[in-house]
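Hey, quick one: can you model this chain's 3D structure?
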Amino acid sequence: MRRTIAFITLFIASTLTLTAQDLLVKRNGERLKVTTLEITTQCVKYVRYNTKLPVYTLPIAEIEYIEYSDGNRDTFNKSTATETKQSVSGNYEIYDIGSYYNKNGVEGIVIATTDGGAHGTIISIDEAECAWSTIERKKLTHCGCTDKIDGRKNMEALGNYIAQQGLSWDSFPAAKWCRDKGEGWYLPAINEVWMLGTVVNGGSRSKPRREVRKQYNALLKECGGKALSALMYYYSSTEAEEKRNATYSHCSPDTPHTGEGSKNDRLFVRAFYRF
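Sure thing. Here's the predicted structure for all 275 residues.
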């Protein structure tokens, strides 16, 4: 192959001026105008021409050739395609931060990856506005949701509390909204909500890249979802030390980045899912 471009994250890609128009021709005859970001032995990562998001990943096995803006061409022969198809067989797919995820009825935008993009975390394309709990404030108490890193543990703790107390998920609208999306969806822990705000600001709160948040919001709208608010707080599943309060964060670069308030307050909620 003529080129291999070093791995490009969302944050670096967001600062590029994408002007090179490449022609990617798939084996089924489909022709795509793209800007090529990376070529590996297994896949090609690209964005649609004149865009920065989303980043698409396509197995080599599905590509006939790529003709670059300078007239050069990479052709992927059948033997390479066969070997690659075997190596990426099954359900193994690679995702980048900022990619659109839509698999087995689960839809969202990738905000973190592990294992080279095989696994990661997505946020829901939609959001809700509701209370953490509708239980009368004077009766509120700790539910065991103490984890600051993994909201799934808080969801498990809350489920145990609900069962022990003979309550229902209806008394906890924020968690219920996430849970009702289906198996695996959860109300994120405080560090996860904080991470979301950091990611959509370009990886830094102190030196925010507002164009990155605009790109995220444009993608959310393109997918039929709702843009992230820079003005409202987003609930986490982590309770505060004060038993009547829950913690929250936001997607603005402004400080403080986290806080707490009454569980009865209505704030925004965005569901998380790990794939």
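One thing worth noting: The longest strand covers residues 31-39.
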